[in-house]
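Ops channel
N.P.: pipeline sanity check, posting one input/output pair.
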């Protein structure tokens, strides 16, 4: 990681950076890969089963076909939890992700609910974010997923949500110029500026609902089971493959065509932001990779092949109702920042929230 692409990074005299030093301070209180973690996880799982005895489901799990959410289902199955899986089908899943979701849910005997947002309005919203020329075009996707999970918790009276968020592979997340995905105001304002169509068939979550009212009114407990085990990417893929013929898709968040495009081409080309830097840094912190290996892999193209790159360009152009030339021109427009558009003032509390993250799940 470097300060050419990330202005929030700073380096100490010994060459270490604030991201790594903060992650190393957090590690002893967030990540428990040994015996202590096993004891803690057993207690958490026992508590969930005891408190939810009379309910139809013990917990809810948001699934994407990715490694993290799939392994959460695997762990829940091992502990005998009655899980409800929620997947938001926005038409951007890779075929591998679709197959992985079916396999893991079938093998764990987990009920799956596929939520389909109004695609006409959803596509128009994604198009608006591309027109806004901001880095994180996937914000609407993330927002709707979180909102649907909360809706399902309310509908089925579920008090526990098992999350795939983890320290091992996500301790370092580049954050320059970002905005919280739960900023409903930001989403609405960008859409209003670049479209005159309605969003009345889509529902969003606001920052206040996500971090204040959902905790006070619905008492949803978010559990991160992957922080209580020695969570290793290679071992996880091997285990899931053996368990349900799970297939890995080549990179973090590459289970989504949109996210794969953003991380492999859009962000590094347009904003000089290579997400692999933070992803690999997280793996270094948790002992799964060394710096030399990370630098070697960063020297390779982000896209696995030129054919895959062309597929993503053509798919997204068609998805958004554009010609390939129109899409190429759109994604090469002058870059903007999220701060160029209205957003909730609660985003200013992000540094404070990171400091007290364990209380603001």
């Amino acid at each position: 990681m470097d300060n050419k692409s990330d202005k929030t990074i700073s380096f100490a005299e010994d060459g270490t950076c604030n991201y790594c030093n903060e992650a190393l301070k957090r590690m002893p209180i967030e990540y428990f890969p040994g015996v202590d973690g096993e004891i803690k996880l057993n207690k958490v799982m026992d508590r969930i089963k005891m408190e939810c005895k009379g309910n139809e489901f013990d917990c809810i799990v948001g699934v994407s076909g990715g490694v993290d959410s799939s392994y959460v289902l695997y762990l829940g199955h091992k502990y005998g939890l009655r899980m409800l899986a929620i997947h938001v089908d926005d038409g951007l899943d890779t075929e591998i992700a679709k197959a992985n979701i079916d396999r893991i849910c079938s093998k764990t005997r987990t009920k799956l609910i596929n939520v389909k947002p109004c695609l006409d309005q959803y596509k128009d919203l994604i198009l608006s974010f591309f027109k806004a020329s901001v880095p994180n075009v996937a914000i609407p996707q993330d927002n709707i997923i979180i909102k649907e999970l909360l809706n399902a918790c309310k509908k089925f009276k579920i008090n526990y949500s098992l999350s795939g968020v983890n320290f091992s592979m996500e301790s370092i997340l580049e954050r320059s110029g970002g905005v919280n995905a739960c900023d409903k105001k930001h989403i609405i304002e960008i859409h209003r500026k670049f479209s005159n169509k309605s969003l009345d068939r889509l529902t969003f979550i606001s920052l206040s609902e996500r971090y204040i009212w959902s905790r006070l009114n619905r008492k949803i407990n978010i559990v991160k089971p992957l922080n209580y085990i020695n969570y290793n990417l290679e071992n996880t893929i091997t285990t899931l493959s053996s368990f349900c013929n799970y297939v890995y898709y080549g990179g973090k968040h590459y289970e989504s065509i949109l996210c794969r495009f953003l991380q492999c081409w859009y962000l590094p080309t347009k904003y000089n932001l290579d997400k692999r830097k933070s992803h690999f840094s997280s793996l270094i912190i948790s002992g799964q990779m060394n710096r030399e290996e990370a630098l070697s892999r960063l020297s390779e193209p982000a896209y696995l092949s030129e054919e895959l790159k062309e597929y993503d360009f053509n798919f997204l152009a068609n998805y958004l109702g554009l010609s390939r030339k129109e899409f190429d021109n759109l994604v090469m427009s002058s870059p903007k920042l999220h701060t160029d558009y209205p957003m909730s003032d609660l985003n200013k509390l992000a540094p404070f929230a990171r400091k007290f993250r364990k209380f603001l799940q």
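N.P.: looks fine end to end. The mean pLDDT is 93.
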